[in-house]
What does this fold into?
Amino acid sequence: MPSHPTAAPSDTGPQPTSIHFHPACRDGQSLSPGHLHPDEAYLVPDFDQAEVLIAQGVNSARVAISNRAAVSAHSAEYPQLAGQLQLVPASPFTFDESIIVVLPTYNERSNLEALVTAIGQYLATDIVIVDDNSPDGTGELADQLSTRYPYVHVLHRPRKEGLGPAYIAGFQWALQRPYDRIIEMDCDFSHAPWDLPRLVHRSRTADLVIGSRYVPGGGTENWNARRRLISRCGNGYVRLFLGSLIRDWTGGFRCYRRGLLEKMALSTVQAKGYIFQVELAWRAVQLGAKVSELPIRFSDRVLGQSKLGWPSIIEGLMEVPKMFLRGPARR
It folds into this structure.
């Protein structure tokens, strides 16, 4: 099942506008990033230079990556859609590895089609939608998308059991097929689709890549004080027990190498809610995996309702000490 070669077509919507691109280097010297106007962006020759800019605080949505030997300041490779922040490449990034994105859904009908389309604009990849019998018709829409796009697959589950079991089902589905990289991301645009190629590229030198809010260049957008407090305290609580090797233990935008997931004994994972992310990261650490954190900007959802509630918080408070006391689970 090769990743699809072209982006999902879009027949409607705003037309591209002209963008002025600034080179990231001049005369062999890196430039200090400055303020960008809405019609400006940075142009870099590779992912490594993109990461230098992003770590300095440049929004990844305003960094275009081109491997062309010579690029003009007005390049058509990355047109910008009018009224939108992000740049859109003329064609999705392709990699030698076979890739699958796992999208768990519950009442995400308002986001699903737009996200599937956006993923196809940035990365040549398959997608498996794991729907927990959403009452809003998300599963039916997923089936429609799978008939429209051959790279979209659907895994229906009979009932809602939590984020952890949904991801485990998606991972196990992927491991039954010859995928090299398995990506997890939220279905509410909290994780930027344009960051997907960065995750895959970094996975060439890491077993697990975590899109991190808490490394230089990372951050959150549109969060209220409560969300910031819960996230900061949650990660601090985890680091208290499991250490500071990982800054963003709870981050849910990740790329796994196949071999790592195969070693994790996924059927024994116990966490149901968001603490599932911590359990898998902890297992990766115990297995000696190389973990790399990539800065991302996490944005609060625009449509739908957040599924973070007190049951997930309480589960985290109880399960993290147990993880510390338990030994690694291996096959």
User: Anything to note?
Assistant: The CA atoms of residues 126 and 151 lie 5 Å apart.
